[in-house]
Write a structure and sequence with these properties.
Keywords: Signal
Protein name: Porin
Oligomer: single chain
Strand order of the largest sheet: 2-4-5-6-7-8-9-12-13-14-15-18-19-20-21-22
Order of helices and strands: EHHEHEEEEEEEEEEEEEEEEEHEEE
InterPro entries: DcaP
Radius of gyration: 23 Å
Helix content: under 10%
Shape: globular
CATH architecture of one domain: Beta Barrel
Number of strands: 22
Pfam families: DcaP (PF19577)
Strand content: over 45%
Distance between the termini: 7 Å
Structural class: mainly beta
Largest sheet: 16 strands, antiparallel, barrel
């Protein structure tokens, strides 16, 4: 998704003409490749909720967020239509060849979705937000990037921003990561989401150690397979409370090729995974006034992509999430999500390589512990150009 453009000569010329130290800068820039890329994307989304509705500019109307599917009937349940270009993004990177033959690389990426500011009355202006910003050097990565616990290459091609939202690990955060061969290890930013009295979510940042991950990647002609493990500390230190709980998880994912077609999948299970799966559809733990109780969960997805010909292709997707809530704690947790699932199918047309027109239909269901449930029917059209 990134178009590389060698700008060494232009940058060197600018440096020489504008700075007294131009010769030194030119020598440095002559060893650096500068690249940029991204895409422009327009989304038109028709959403019909069976129970309740989402207000104007709610994030659940910009893309599918499982925890936002209403389960309580209300007035004003007519379908809603939205258009935005907020998923459009831009990235900029460098690659500098060092004297010892190694390369130091940087990348920074921005988009506008899930950001503050703007309105839909006049300007539709939205603040850019940082997606990734990191430097890599001799196997090390420092900065903000996709979690080592997530396999980004397993995500299917969908019009929706995430796609298998409830079934995938999906986290970007600050980290230090080391990759050697097929293995990678990371220490990442910790954060806990805890349910307290009345079902209130509290986000705590009191961990004494980073989240730790280990991952193994295997690649072959038939595709790839990844296994990742996560260990972290859940904390709740508010008022007189000073509680910690351990969290562990494992995720298996990959891609299997069938000629040009492919099958992608992920299966994740763990204790206290919370924000790491399902866009935080369940919290990491429950605080009952005395102790922390980690919430077990299982999630996954399977997606098949079929190429009808060189210009037309489709992705068929099923995704699910299930939480093992402790029913004895329901007086504390309120009525948490018990399970959520979605199906989707799309048709994509690329008249030229980097321009894609698409249509996608999604059906989603969310059920809370009391048995109340709500459905979402969504039809989405998109136009996307990658540069």
């Amino acid at each position: 998704m990134t178009t590389k453009t060698n700008m060494k000569k232009k940058l060197a010329a600018v440096a020489v003409s504008s700075l007294l130290s131009g010769q030194t800068m030119a020598a440095t820039l002559s060893n650096t490749d500068v690249n940029y890329g991204g895409y422009i994307k327009l989304d038109a989304i028709w959403s019909d909720f069976s129970d309740g509705t989402l207000g104007s500019q709610h994030i659940g109307r910009d893309f599918y967020v499982p925890s936002t599917t209403p389960v309580t009937p209300s007035t004003g349940e007519d379908a809603v239509f939205d258009m935005h270009a907020r998923q459009s993004r831009f990235n900029f990177g460098t690659a500098t060849k060092l004297d010892d033959g190694s390369t130091i690389k940087t990348k920074i990426e921005l988009d506008f979705i899930a950001s503050v500011g703007g309105n839909e009355r006049v300007s539709n202006s939205y603040s850019p937000r940082i997606r990734q910003a990191f430097v890599t050097y001799k196997g090390w990565l420092f900065g903000q990037a996709w979690s080592n616990f997530q396999n980004v290459s397993a995500l299917p091609e969908t019009l929706d921003f995430v796609g298998p939202a409830e079934g995938t690990v999906f986290v970007r955060q600050a980290m230090a990561k080391y990759t050697v061969g097929n293995w990678s290890f990371s220490a990442e930013n910790p954060e806990s989401t805890v349910t307290t009295a009345g079902g209130v979510r509290e986000v705590t940042d009191d961990a004494q150690m980073p989240d730790l991950t280990a991952r193994y990647n295997y690649k072959a002609d038939w595709g790839h397979f990844t296994v990742a493990a996560l260990a972290r500390q859940l904390t709740y230190k508010t008022g007189a409370a000073d509680e910690t709980e351990s969290s562990f998880g494992v995720s298996a994912s990959g891609r299997v090729n069938f000629g040009k077609n492919n099958l992608k999948f992920m299966l994740t299970h763990g204790q206290g995974l919370g924000r790491y799966v399902g866009l935080n559809v369940a919290h990491g733990a429950v605080y009952n006034g005395t102790d922390l109780h980690a919430i077990d969960s299982t999630s996954g997805f399977i997606a098949y992509q079929h190429y009808w010909n060189s210009q037309w292709r489709s992705t068929f997707l099923y995704s699910y999430f299930s939480a093992d809530n402790d029913t004895s704690l329901l007086n504390v947790t309120g009525d948490p999500t018990d399970m959520t699932s979605s199906y989707s199918a799309n048709i994509l047309y690329s008249p030229v390589k980097k321009l894609t027109f698409g249509a996608e239909y999604k059906v989603a269901n969310r059920e809370v512990q009391s048995g109340a449930e709500g459905d979402l029917d969504r039809l989405q059209f998109s136009v996307k150009y990658v540069f």
